[in-house]
């Protein structure tokens, strides 16, 4: 079977490939990182090796429909305002970056304020009338086990897995809750990006301002886990703990095409890791790097070098806490876990906001225009549903501002453009802040650039301004199974996508390339317009390149660096709400568990097969048309690859080998 795809990416220099396996047609040759378009035709035998099939599996290829109109701008707004944009672009561009970040935007930094005697009294009264599931024993330790995937969406009580908003809220609630004396944080292999880890780490640091203790425990620890764990006051590990602080790696299909970009990404992540760890542990960066290069694996050495506090089992840490808190040895340590504590309302702790309301619209996952029959109720970004929420916020006078929280590698380009339009209309009526999580690239960045202000974490993956589209060529497969297919058509290009049994004719390939190039230019030009930048300047940063948030800010793709709390502070500033006034955040995507979700929650939490399979099939079968999607970058140990779902891996390998 063969596959044909169109990519708009940085430079690709193909290595020597077996002539019977691949054939490449390059339409234009340019210097590295400044290429235009390339049409690549791959003829892959069904007996292809696993390495080649895995290489191809990193690229999305789509067989059914291609429409240049996916990026058509029927609005005259862009065309009218673009000349005006060029007159002020230099001034606007120069005003972006760190100086604007520091001078114009509030930090949103957490400041712990002790409750007054009256406030303490009212909180105690509220606790007396709280729901039974909100009751927490005085002197309790909040225990949270952070491992695996962490969603950027809110979760219902019956949903499995961790939710970043609820994790962060638990830190804030515990800081003010008089019943909580401290936090015991179990940190195990994480399958999320660095943006979420940075957000959680910030809350760990903020929690310490309350004067309560926070202790970490790490039985299995890599760079990402240690980055979070070292922020705790004390850190313990069992004598048999697995530590793998050996450094970071990055992989990508067709590495030659974007080696410089990947090197920059890795340098940013590794440099940030060294900076934060060295400052937290009071060591020089050179000493941290030397320790990594020594290949240390013995827990005793970690203690000797001051990377952990002591070597203890979990029960020994609990015994130590009992002794510190004056709990008798034969008594249990009062503890409350993450799931139960998530049910404690902010109202119970006197943490409710003021009368001014700010809407929070969360957009997480791959982008589709409409919901497919295979999609789960909580999976991905459904364009038509998100547009309804955006319009609801725009039409309501209740909301003073809106925050679009984005955690998406992109997806359907048409859906991205439609959401861009709605977010832009919303920003004309009230302040809109885009807050990026782990990733806001391709279609995810497309959405963000419609907001008035864009924030990213230091290590958010963003940019990737480019498109991908293509079709299957099943000719080789049909030959092997003795299947013949004839097509009768009218119109010169009627078979451009229908003829799946043959490759493109030269004229079809030319049309296809021009159409995809047009789609890319529309994306790029809208990005330039949205960011008050010339097209030529945007072209330097586009071409499918991925940036960390820090690099994106220095290039004008992002306005400021920070997490969700800073997005709230900026939203207040833009809406002319006093900095010291509390606001109420209204979640527009509150989870509402269905009966099937409640009944299946236990079974799905055991293996996750149902969810994994449905999400994979949805991604493969309902990604029509032009895709604004970031693909092909794989960070080992940065994205939890070593701890991925083996069933998902097998399914992907099987499907990519067909």
TrEMBL record:
**What are the Basic and acidic residues biased-composition ranges?**
93-103
Task: List UniProt keywords, sorted A-Z.
Answer: Hydrolase, Membrane, Protease, Serine protease
Domain called Peptidase S49: residue spans: 426-577
Alphabetically, the GO molecular function entries are: serine-type peptidase activity
Against SUPFAM superfamilies, the record matches this protein to: ClpP/crotonase
Q: Which Pfam families match?
A: Peptidase_S49
InterPro entries linked to this entry: ClpP/crotonase-like_dom_sf, Pept_S49_pIV, Pept_S49_SppA, Peptidase_S49, S49_SppA_67K_type_N, S49_SppA_C
Q: Where is this region: Disordered?
A: 76-104
What name goes with this protein? Peptidase S49 domain-containing protein
Annotated organism of origin: Citrus clementina
